[in-house]
Each structure stands twice: as structure tokens, then as C-alpha cells.
Amino acid sequence: MENETYSNGILPYIPFFYVIWSDDLLSTSEIQVVQTAIDEDHSLSQVEKNELLGWLDRDRPPSDATLKNWQQLITKSNVTLIESETFPLEAFARKMASHYCTSCAPNEHLKSIELNLGIQPNHYNHLFNVEVIQQKFSNSYTGKHLDGHFNNKHFDQLQAFREFLEQPIFKWEIERDKEQARETVLQQLTALAKAGWGALAYPKAYGGRDSIESYASVFEQLLFTDGSLAVKFGVQFGLFGGSIQNLGTKRHHDLYLEATGKAELLGCFAMTETGHGSNVRGIKTTATYVHESKTLVIHTPGKNDNKEYIGNALHSKMASVFAQLIVDGKNMGVHAVLVPLRNAQHEVLKGITIEDNGYKLGLNGVDNGKIWFNQVSVPVENLLDKYGQINADGSYTSSIKNANKRFFTMLGTLVGGRICVAKGALAGAKMALYVSVKHALQRRQFNDSIKIQEDLLMDYPSHQLRLIPRVASSFVYHTALQKAMGDYADSDADKRRIETQVAGLKAIITWFSTATIQECREACGGKGYLLENRIADLKNDTDIFTTFEGDNTVLLQLAAKGVLSNFKSELNAGGFLSVLKLLRTRMTDKLATINPAYSNKLDKAHLYNPKFHLHALDYRLRRLTDTAAMRIRGYIKKGVPSYQAFLKVQTHLLELGKAYSEALAVKWYYDFVAQQKEGSYKDLMYQLGALHALSIIRKDASWYLEQGYLSGTKSKAIRQRVERLSTELRPHINSLVEGFGIPGHLVHAPIAG
Amino acid sequence: MENETYSNGILPYIPFFYVIWSDDLLSTSEIQVVQTAIDEDHSLSQVEKNELLGWLDRDRPPSDATLKNWQQLITKSNVTLIESETFPLEAFARKMASHYCTSCAPNEHLKSIELNLGIQPNHYNHLFNVEVIQQKFSNSYTGKHLDGHFNNKHFDQLQAFREFLEQPIFKWEIERDKEQARETVLQQLTALAKAGWGALAYPKAYGGRDSIESYASVFEQLLFTDGSLAVKFGVQFGLFGGSIQNLGTKRHHDLYLEATGKAELLGCFAMTETGHGSNVRGIKTTATYVHESKTLVIHTPGKNDNKEYIGNALHSKMASVFAQLIVDGKNMGVHAVLVPLRNAQHEVLKGITIEDNGYKLGLNGVDNGKIWFNQVSVPVENLLDKYGQINADGSYTSSIKNANKRFFTMLGTLVGGRICVAKGALAGAKMALYVSVKHALQRRQFNDSIKIQEDLLMDYPSHQLRLIPRVASSFVYHTALQKAMGDYADSDADKRRIETQVAGLKAIITWFSTATIQECREACGGKGYLLENRIADLKNDTDIFTTFEGDNTVLLQLAAKGVLSNFKSELNAGGFLSVLKLLRTRMTDKLATINPAYSNKLDKAHLYNPKFHLHALDYRLRRLTDTAAMRIRGYIKKGVPSYQAFLKVQTHLLELGKAYSEALAVKWYYDFVAQQKEGSYKDLMYQLGALHALSIIRKDASWYLEQGYLSGTKSKAIRQRVERLSTELRPHINSLVEGFGIPGHLVHAPIAG
Questions:
Q1: Which residue of chain A comes nearest to B548, CA vs CA?
Q2: Chain A contact set for B702 (CB, 8 A)
Q3: How distant, in Å, are the alpha carbons of A287, A321, A324, A385, B554 from that of A335?
Q4: A416-752 maps to which CATH number?
Q5: Residue B452 — very low, low, confident or very high, per pLDDT cuts 50/70/90?
Q6: Residue of A114, A549, A655, A662 marked catalytic
Q7: Which CATH superfamily hosts domain B415-752?
């Protein structure tokens, strides 16, 4: 076939223009890229330039007939598209041009177009009816480097721990029987303790390394090993040991901390009660001080006042029991007391009843139980008395006079556990994404012809949209949790603010993980339903993470109250006093009216700009804060009791809590990326951030539209950008999931290859 | 205290005005109700009327000071609010007025306000600082009547079946071991078969009752019993038996149907293959006809071409095997052949290999397995030859000449199974909602004071919003599936259209169920995580329903193709020919521009009107149809290959498939309600419909806003109405979940009380 239509200078531009116009995503800034390249292309005559520039007019795009003609020109050239070329489209275009014109010289300007438009073979390889030599994975990024970038603290220790997990004892296996599963987990726990991993967060004097950050990283890896092991580890070293470390004094540390770290003393954390759930301040167990015998009498008053769902309850020798401390007939509020549960022969002590909670949806390797106390006496020294002491004369003193404040200070020391829960949930999501992406890179389904290979699952737009934004979000949330843990470990930080931040992050990240694992299960079809492929267990094990260490619905309301009181409220406080006080005085935040030019701004440079994302998320946060404050004030002015006023805006508070947390995660992520060295990984990180942020904004698009923050056209453009970014990241998806840093020896799913 | 401010005529109106203005939900039509009552109240003087009417001006609402004054007047009257009164607010207002004025006469007009505004004690009982005597359940509706209304076909048989399930053998118990679980399920299956329940859909001549509708109702009840039992039942009687009934001829019926119904012959349905998943047309198993021996040779060519996930594989004596039928070297397309698997001693026959699929996320009472065939010969008579026959001379004939059409006709006979899957998933959602609502009606959490009772979970707005719309949706989807099954059973119906409808409904309803059960798990907190409370098992058992009998993502694309081709396309067809043909000729549907007065219409009467709901859902469907058609046409005009053009709009097609199915379900629901007798249940049904429809519209609010179909204000009003309707239905929630008709003897969850 002859090309009679186009000059030699124009010919190599044809595949570019075809790719550009066959889709509808060309924005003003993209047109600019092409225009500049043409302007600078001195090999073109002015006539040729004019012809090419004429095809760039968005108001008068090339006709369908022209496009069809281009398509045939391309197809009939019979050139093969080789995706592994450095500039595959430029190389293709060059070879195509050579087919019609033997004397054509390579055109360097086309490379700059290809580079600047960010177009990749998977955007156009299906548009040409030509042979395609596919490149399965991109070589631009490696998972190893990504892992290093995102785990830049204590990386060596993390690597050492990953290697430690290669021992056969940690190999994941299907185990249906809870007794057997608990036995395995106990052995694994002991092995970890013996090697010193359990004590990481404890002071060096007690065999630890004084690093709660390392502890949290280790916890995350354990989720890759087995959900039950991670939770058991958290209960023994984080909750039980943590209560001794944070609520006890040197006496308790000397007696118990080292043995706890070595798992020679197994303990449980007995806070929650059947009848009171999330309302810890309302627990009914009492610890009554008897001055004559210098003892505390622990007692469960009613049948439903038992401790419930206590992990490690069947293996423990001791419990850290939360109870109302009664001194001289007066309730001093909730305190923790160490109560021995069993003797050396593992017989339950007198006055104590322990029952197995039975089978659960997941985590059946964890021995959850119920505990009742019937007038059980322990020495007064067992009171974990850092924040409240009983003196030799039988009087009670505390450095924190306000009982409410004391209570929340004690609970505040446990915030680290909440970060770990979120990290654990996120690890579950990462593992599920790893398995389903690896599967989608091998599994083929359907095509237009039975003669050629079926398409890879990963190349279906719907499959990309269901998995790739979630991979991006995983990196953003990972970074947010790393930052939260760093802040929490920093003794100078504003604890009240961190509690609020962690409450919100825990809620949105555990919900994200539950939804992600579900999506992964479905994305793997029936294969995802088989236990051997791990997703099923990850799903069941992490499902409860939305409930424990603070029910998400409760936590989001706490976060909202924190925001409303400018982080001055006692976290968990029911009285709303500090919120109300602030509401009364606080000026309404003046939000600038959104300029129509802004709410209509559509170009790529703007939509991918972190400034836009942060502005949008911050706008939502501030607006929801103001409207919530106004509504509450309005009710109170009308005489509605304050508790009821808060209840009336409960669903609003949940949205506010979410908005706060999402804005925070994105802000922290971009702060982190800004600190990275320039180079290709930084670009990739910004792409991941943009995909996550636009997905989040997209989820609340109806709200933004209602507010006039987004125009209808901009909202549509965001939806298209989410799809487009997903396809742009498609070539890197293998490196991205490898960047989660999941050790190969912990991946057992047959479908992950 | 004296009331010095208000006249005796005005006094009883005060609580009404307080309730009205303390919230922000008063719409124009509601103001009208109050205005009419005042106009007609001849006990009021003109001065009093003017004062009251002055308080109805939305532009000049009563001041905060006035409202606070009203609140105090109410509180200081010390009157108790008794929720069980017929007109509780009127009674309260009357008593309050009497407190300040001994001679006040009852005012009948207040009753009409209370009735017409639809205000209920739970809207205002928290606004007054008075003693409240709560009414736990409303007496307006009973679950029994609801059940009867919604299961109006074959109700006696349904009741008989529910009673049958009271036998101890059907009692649900925790069973972790798959061998034991399979044994139990097999025994239950046999008991059902012996009593004739398995054969319901078969002709009377073979022990059945010729009623696929009864069969489907029975299937739903089995899900309440146990997920594995339901699926095993479906495989044995619906899939295996169904293939004999629908694809076989009298010879096969005579030989096998009665034994199948009695479970004397156990069989499996061997369609899906490991390597080909949803792509049934691409299966690789062959059935090659050998004329010399008049046999068919069944063969699995490659390692991954085995039958996969075949239910009943380990218990079966025979399989209905789907294979490419090769006659005289020519592939006649996919046909089903009966292949014996085991002898009387249950030994696997020569050439056949069967492997257990192992443990799954759920349904471990079902024996799923993989099957390979190595040159297995069966008599040609075993070909299920209703749609294609091999004649005595060895030639092949079929009444359906087109191989594609033949294939889809065969698959079409299995659409009943898809309806059952959706019914089963929905039954899981109903059971989970039942358990979590019953729990929320007993469980108390938090309050503003430790002195008074904590609030019921069910009284939290966030809890109402998470459960009540889902209860409403369950009734709507139930009705849609009843209608689909009725149409399917009707031999005169347009089969192609029904297939499209069922494909879409199966997808949206199974997704709804998965999300609902998840919400219920979380709404029950840690209690929901215990196996004993059933939600965990329902979650795991029904999870795969989004994948099997057609992956939801695939089904929605089929539905979309059905819509685009005006239900003329071969369902499942990959060639797109009929769609393309229609796209070429079809006129663009002229959608009227939305009048701003309409997109801004906010009053209650409009927002609750089925006409608005149907209009909105239909608008979305038509708009998505047009834009999808335009986009595909656009790509094709530019020379993009047709398969790729469809792929490029894949996410659009998924939205279209959903929009079609949601619109259909709401339409069928309102058609059903319109046929009901006038009376209170009809009103309730409309309320349920409005809550469901507004929730669905709300979910896609961003799209409606982008299109300008909804104004920002209207979109907000819809969000508020969803919350408001949830509180309006709160008093009836106990009756509503009892209306699901779950037999008491099948409810074992301790938290359901």
C-alpha cells in the first residue's frame, strides 16, 4: 500500500495523533506539550506544521473519516509494537513511517511528546490492529527500592525480622481446630519472645530496645505470617506488658517486665465487659481496698459484668484487670490491678471463673475468654499505680486531681495499640492486594477471538479500577501510620492531638482494609474463596479490627469531638463540656467562596496537583466543622439538652471524623514525599498520592457538588482521571505490590505463583 | 410555675411547635398540614390564630429565646410522655396544657396534625426534659401479616415447609470439620428428598409438583437453616436434576428424574473449568462421538482444563458434564452429557480422577471437587439431546441451526438457578438483619448520665441509618425476585429479556447482601464476630454468591449489552454483532431537559412520591444507555476494533447494568404495592419503597448532580429524608424484621434473644 495522503514529515506523527484523538482525555496542558514539540521540530516545513497544529484544535477535532484513515495507515504498515522499547510509541511510529518512506529520518521530538504525555503501551496497544509484543512488567521501578523508601526507619531491624520469620515454625497452614491452632500460635509466640522480639518496646534494662516503632513494624509483619499470631503477640507484649510498662511503676517493672517480654509470664488485658462494650468508664468490676489486710478485693457484681473477649485468657497466669477502685467507700474511677489467674500447675485460682469464648469468624488461634471474679483478694502492691496511689495510711492520692482526666490519661497510654491494629489491618489489605494482583498478572479471560491469547485480568479497565487505587491508598495509609507511630514515640508531642489523629486513622484504615480484602476476594473469583489462597483468612482475621481497640463508629465521634474542641476535649469524655465551651467562643471559620474558575478548572496539571487535593480535603474538613458547630449551637440555643444535641448530629459527626482523618493522611503523605530526594521514585510517589487523593475526593463528590466546590464537569473529569491514573500505573503494578515488602517465604497462596 | 405568656387556646399547640422548629425538616407541605388544622380550629380566636400562623413562616422562624421558653414551659409542666398512647404528642400536649390551665378542653385538631405530619415519639422524646415511658415496639403492624403480604403465592406450602424444618436434624450447629459437616448436610439433603421437597420443580409424573416458584421459596428457607445445605440442595435438584429436566428428553426423565428427586441418584453439574472460569463457551473438555461403538468419549485435554469447584463431586454417582461435542471431526459447540462417576461401592470409575477442593471461606458442608476425564466412554444415549441430537446414521441435527443461539438457549434454561442464588443471598441478609435488629433492641450503650438507663443501640441515629434502609431494601429486592421467578415460570414470557433482568438483579442483590451482612457484623460489634450468633457463617457462606452462577462483573456487562441491544443480543455473546447493529440504527433517545423547578423541588410530597423515584431511576438508565451507545459508536467510527471499543467503556457498562437493575427492582416493587388493598400495610409498603429508592438515588447523587438532574439543595434534602424515613420506620423495625418470616425454630443466635 502507498501512502498518498501525508508528507514524510507528518507521517511519524500519525500514530501519536491517533492515540490522542481516539480517546477523550486530552486536556489543555497536554495539547501544550504536543504544540511545543511541533514548534521546535525544525525538520517540518511551515505547511506541515500548520497541518499538524490544525489537528490540535479541541473545538474542531479531526473527523471520524480522518481517524479511520489513520487507523488503516497504521494497521496496514504491519509494524509490530514492541512494548519493551525505551520509547515504544516513538519506535513504532518511526518504523511505521519507514514502511511508507524509506528515506525518513528519526524524529527526536516525538520522544519528548511520549515522555511528557505519560502515554504508555497499555493506553494504546489495543487501538492498533497490529501484532503486539507485550512487556509483562515495567523495569522502571523495583519493589525492593519502594520498600526501602517507604520503610526508611529501622530498616535493617525490619529485614532481620523478616529473615527470622523464614523458620519452618512460622509457615502458614490451614488449621480448623481452635485447640490445635492455639497450640501452634503459643509455640510461635514463645519462639518470638525467646529471640527478643516481644520486648522491643520495653526499656533496655528489661531486655528490650526501647523502640515502640520497631515493635509496630514487627507487628505488621506478623500479620503476613498469621492473624492470630499477630493478635496474640499484641495482647501479650503490647496490652498486658504495655499496661505494666505504662500504668505501673518500677516495682512492677522489676517484678514482671522481663518475664513478660520472654513470655515466661503470660498475661491478659482484662478491660472490656460484656454489658458495657465501648463504654469503658461504665465498667462494673470493682477493686475495693481493705486497709486492715492491705489488699484489693476484685469482684464482678452482676452476671453480665464479666470481662469479655479477653485474648490470652486461657493461657495466662495473670491479668491486668480494669476495675472501679473503691477506697474508703469512695469510687476513685477506673484503675488497673494485676490479678493472678492460675497457679504453676495452670489451675484456675479460687474465686475466678474463666470460660472459652468459643469459635469466632476468625482469629481462632487466639484464646479469647470470659472472666468472672468472686471476691478475689490481691496485695495492694498489685495496683498499677503510676497515676493513682494508695498510701500506707490507706488514703488515695493522684498527681492528676480530675478523675476524668486521670481516666483518659491512663487510656491514652494505650494509643500505641490502636496504631498497631490499623497497621495490622493494612498489612492484611497489602497481602490480599499482593495475591490478587499477582493472580491478575497470570490469569487470562476472554477475548474477541478464540485464535489469540485471552486477555490478562489485569488489563481489564474494571479490574484496574478495583485494585490499583487501593494499592495507591495502601502506600498513603502506610505512610500516615508510620508518621503517627513516630509522633507517638516522641515524648514531646501533643498527646491529646495524637489520640484524636490515631482514633480517626484507625477507623478509616481498618474500614479501608475490610473493603479492600473483600474486593480482592471477589477479584480472584472462586480461587479467592479457597483457604489455600490466604485471602479468606485475612478477611476473617482482620474483620474484627473495625471493632476492637475502639469501635470505629465510636472512634470517629471522638475524632470529631477532638476537632470541634480544637483538640482540647478529654478524649472519650461524655460530658461535652469542653466542646461546648469552645463552641460558644469559637468564631465561625471564614471560608472563602469558591471561584467558578476554580470549581471549573479541569486541566491535568491542576487535577494532579497536591495543592488542589489538600485544598479540597481541607475545605471539606473546615466546612463540616463549621456546620456541625452551628447545628449543635442551634439546638442548644433552642433548649435541647446537650447530650441530645450531639446525638441529633451524630451522622454529621461521623462524616466530620472521616473528613478529618482522610485530610490528615493525605497531608502527611505529601509531607513525606516532599522530603524525598528528586528522582523517578518521587514522581511515582506523587502519582500514587494523586490517585489516592482523587479517589477520596471522588467518593465524596456529591458533597462537593452540593457545596458548589466542584462543577459537574470537574467532577466528571476527576472520575476520568481516577481511571486514567489507574491505567498509567498499570505497567508498574507488579513492582508496586512487591514494594509492600512482604517476604517471599510468607507468601503461600498458589494463585500468587 | 405560672404560664403568663400564652393563652389557653395556644398552650396545647406549644409542644407541636417546639417539635416542629427544634428540627430543620419542615417542608412546605408539612406547613400546609399545620396551617389547615389551625384554620379549622374554631376554638381559637382570630388573635390566637394569627399568633400561631405567625410561627409558621419559614422565613421568620420563632427566635431561639422563644423556643427555649417553650422548652422550659414543657419541662416544668412535669408531665410524663407515654409513648403507647394512640396520639402520644396530642395526649402529652393536652396534659401539659391542663397543668397550666385547669379548664382547658381537649383539642381534636391536634390529632390531625400528629397523624398527618407522621411524627412519632422517637422524633421528639429526647427533646423534652421529662420522664418518658417508652414503648418498645409499635403495635401498628405485625410481622405475620407482613410475611403474608410479601409471600402471597404458595403461602400454605411455604408454611408447611417451615414447619418441616423444625425437626432436630435441621438444627444449626457449629461444625469446623469439613468431613463431618458434609456428612450432616448429606443426611439433611436425604431427609428433604424423602419428604418430596427436592422434586418440587419436576413434573408430577416424576414425584414433583411442577412448581419452580415453590422450589425457589424452599431454597430461600434452607439458607436460614444452613448455607451449605441450601447450596447442596441447589446442586442436586436444581443444577443436576435441572439439566436432566431442561436439556434432556423423555428417555432421560424416565430413567433418572424420580431417582434424582428422591436423592437416590446423587449427581453433580460439571460445567466450570479451572482455566476458563466465566468463559463457558471456551471450555476445553471434549465429547467425541465414535460412530462404530455409538459412544461419546469424554476427555480433559490439558491439566488446567479439569472441571473445577464442582459441588457434590465427592458424593455423586453421576455428572452432567459440559463439553465441546465433536461429531465427525466437527465441533458442534457445548453440550451436556451424563457421565457415571462411581460404581455402587462408590469407587471412582476408570479414567476419572476426582480431587477435593479443600477448605473454603464458607460452605464447607459442600463437597466441592475437581474432575478430570481420561478418554471415558459413555453410550451416545447419555447426551442430553433436547437441543441437539445425534442420529442413528451418526449425523448431528438441531432445531436451532445457529450454534451461538443453541448455546445460549441451553444456558438460558439455567436462569432459574441464578434467581435462587440471589434469593439465597438475600435470605442471608435478612437473617443477619433480623439478628442485629433484635440485638439492637436489647443492647444499651452510653448515655449522658450514669443515673438513668443507657440508650438502646437501635435509638442511635447512626445505627438506624446503617440498618433500617437495608431492611427496606430487602423487601424491595424480595419482591423483585418473586416477580422474576413468576415471569421465568411463565412459559409465554420473553426469555431473552428475563435473562437480562435476572443477570442484573443477581449482581446487585448479591452485592447488597454481602455489604449488608458485613454491616450487621459490625453493628453487633464483638458479638457479631462469634460463630454462635450466625452472622459470621452467613457472611462466609454467601460471600461466593457474588461469584458463582455468573460473576457479578460479567453479569452486569451482559445486562448492559441486553439494554443496548434492546434485549435482542444473545446473552453472553462475545461478538457484539447484534449490539452493534442496533447501535447503528438506534435513534438517540430524546431526554427532556430537566426543568430547574423540578431539580429544585424539595417538598416531602414530591420526595416521597414513587413517580419521582421512578423518573429519576429511569432518567439515569436512559442517559447512561445513550452515552454508552454514543461512546461505542464514536470509537468504532474512529476505527477502533469493536471488542476494544466495548472494553474502553467497560466501567460505563457496569454502571449501566446496575442502573438498569436498580430501576427495574423499584418499578416492580411499586407495581406490586399498587396491587395491594388499601390500608395501613400499603402505606407502610410505600414508606419502605421511598426509603429504598431515595437511598439508591442518594448513592448516585454525584452523577445526578453532574447531570443537573438534582440541585445541590435537593440532593441535601434527599440525604435528610433518608435519615428522617429511617427514624420514621424505627417504631416498626421489630415488626419489619419479623416480617421476613424467618421461623423462630431456625433462629439460634443468643444475641437475638
A1: A526
A2: 698, 701-702, 705, 715
A3: 8, 8, 6, 8, 56
A4: 1.20.140.10
A5: very low
A6: A549
A7: Butyryl-CoA Dehydrogenase, subunit A, domain 3 (1.20.140.10)
Nearest chain B Cα distance for residue A160, angstroms: 33
pTM of the shown model: 0.91
Cβ distance A702 to B723 less than 8 Å, yes or no, reads: no
pLDDT tens-digit readout, B286-309: 999 999 999 999 999 998 899 999
Looking at the complex, report in whole angstroms how far the Cα of residue A313 sits from the nearest Cα belonging to chain B.
16
- Residue A461 to residue B127, Cβ atoms within 8 A: no
Phi-psi region of A452 (alpha: psi -120 to 50; beta: other; left: phi over 0): beta
Query: How far A679 CA lies from chain B's nearest CA (Å)?
Result: 32
Q: Which of chain B's residues have a Cβ under 8 Å away from the Cβ of A129? A: 641
How does DSSP assign B134-188, residue by residue? --SS-SS--HHHHHHHHT-SSHHHHHHHHHHTTSGGG-------HHHHHHHHHHH
Q: Which residue has the higher pLDDT, B630 or B482?
A: B482
Phi, psi of B456, deg, nearest 5: -65, 140
Show the cell assigned to A492. Answer: 514531646
Q: What ipTM was reported for this prediction?
A: 0.91
Q: Do domains A268-408 and A416-752 have the same CATH topology?
A: no
Q: Mean of the pLDDT values across residues B218-243?
A: 97
Please indicate whether residue B264 is annotated as part of the active site. no
Query: Minimal Cα–Cα distance from B677 to chain A, Å?
Result: 37
**Cβ contacts of B47-55, under 8 Å, gap ≥ 24:** B48/B7, B48/B9, B48/B10, B51/B10, B52/B10, B52/B13, B52/B17, B55/B17, B55/B21
Task: Tell me the per-residue pLDDT of A232-255, one tens digit each, with 9 for 90 and over.
Answer: 999 999 999 999 999 999 999 999
Taking contacts as CB-CB distances below 8 angstroms, the residues of chain A near B716 are 706
- What pLDDT is stored for residue B25 in this prediction? 59
Looking up cell 467507700 gives A329
Phi, psi (rounded to 5 degrees) for B341: -105, -35
Question: Is the minimum CB–CB distance between A166 and chain B shorter than 8 Å?
Answer: no
Long-range CB contacts (within 8 A, 24+) of B581-584: B583/B629, B583/B632, B583/B633, B584/B633
Question: Which of B310, B632, B705, B716 is the best residue to mutate to test the A interface, defined by the most A CB atoms within 10 Å of its own CB?
Answer: B705
Give, in words, the CATH class of B146-261. Answer: mainly alpha
For residue A585, what are the contacts with CB-CB under 8 A and spacing of at least 6?
none
Q: Are B67 and A638 within 8 A, CB to CB?
A: yes
The 10 Å Cβ neighbour count of residue A499 is 24
User: How far apart (Å, rounded) are the C-alpha atoms in residues B714 and B716?
Assistant: 5
- Break chain B into its structural domains and give their ranges: 11-133, 146-261, 267-411, 415-752
Q: Which of residues 448-487 of A touch B (CB under 8 A)?
A: 448, 450, 454, 460-462, 465
> Beta strands of A380-472 (E only): which ranges?
389-390, 396-397, 444-445, 455-456
pLDDT for A155 equals 92
Residue B321 identity = V
- Partner-chain residue, chosen from B177, B532, B553, that has the shortest CB–CB distance to A358: B532
CA nearest to A360 within chain B: B530
| Fold designation for A268-408 | Butyryl-CoA Dehydrogenase, subunit A; domain 2 (2.40.110)
Q: How far is CA B634 from CA A125, B665, B727, in A?
A: 18, 31, 48
Alpha carbons A357 and A286: distance in angstroms, whole number: 22
Chain A residues with CB inside 8 Å of B551's CB?
525
Of B454, B647, B708, the CB nearest to A126: B647
Q: How near does any CA of chain A get to the CA of B294, in Å? A: 30
Please indicate if any CB of chain B lies within 8 Å of the CB of A530: yes
CATH number of B267-411: 2.40.110.10
CB contact A651 to B (< 8 Å):
yes
Cβ atoms of residues A409 and A467 within 8 Å = no
